[in-house]
Amino acid sequence: VQLVESGGGLVQPGGSLRLSCAASGFTFSSYAMSWYRQTPGNGRDLVATITNTGGSTVYADSVKGRFTISRDNAKNTVHLQMNILKPEDTAVYYCKSRLTGRDYWGQGTQVTVSS
User: Fold this and answer.
1) Alpha-carbon distance 96 to 99, whole Å?
2) CB neighbours of 92 closer than 8 A, spacing ≥ 6?
3) Between β-strands 109-113 and 9-11, what pairing exists: parallel, antiparallel or unpaired?
4) Fewest C-beta in 10 Å: which of 25, 61, 73, 93?
5) What is the pLDDT of residue 101?
6) How far is the CA of 29 from the CAs of 17, 36, 87, 113, in angstroms?
7) What does residue 76 show for φ and ψ, rounded to 5 degrees?
8) What is the pLDDT of residue 33?
9) Are the CB atoms for 79 and 12 separated by under 8 Å?
10) Is residue 69 a contact partner of residue 58, using CB atoms and an 8 Å limit?
11) Do the bridges between strand 45-50 and strand 57-59 make them parallel or antiparallel, or are there none, so unpaired?
12) Burial, 64: exposed, middle or buried (Cβ in 10 Å; 0-12, 13-18, 19+)?
């Protein structure tokens, strides 16, 4: 199983970024996918989850209305569109899959929201 995130960077408050996670090594279309984020000294917090078909999504209250998770099962990718970014969104963002009771994580991508 391999998960590779991309798309992070430095953005001004109010700006947008689109994160991507390329998955391989498992049947992507059979599993829900999630995005988490982590700030220094803290654990990883759930940002959003999408079911295997993309038919249902769940968001943390702090990102509802600003972030959108989506997936392309033909390309084995999951995305996180982040709009109206705030300084408190600054974190390392990880994608995660859970297969047969085990969690798999990507290496993370840094998002910094600052003027």
Assistant:
1) 10
2) 8, 37, 38, 39, 108, 109, 110, 111
3) parallel
4) 61
5) 87
6) 24, 20, 33, 32
7) 55, 45
8) 98
9) no
10) no
11) antiparallel
12) exposed
Q: Which residues pair with 102 in a beta bridge?
A: 99
Mean pLDDT by 10 residues, the chain (115 residues): 98 98 97 97 97 97 98 98 98 95 96 97
* Contact between residue 18 and residue 7 where contact means Cβ atoms under 8 Å apart: yes
What torsion, rounded to 10 degrees, do the Cα atoms 100, 20, 49, 109 define? Answer: 90
- Tell me which DSSP letter residue 87 carries: G
Look up tokens 């984020």; give the residue: 37
Residues listed for the chain: 115
Chain-centroid distance of CA 65 in Å reads 15
Residue 71, amino acid: R
Cβ pair 114, 85 in contact under 8 A: no
**DSSP one-letter string for 10-60:** EE-TT--EEEEEEEESS-GGGS-EEEEEE-TTS--EEEEEE-TTS--EEE-
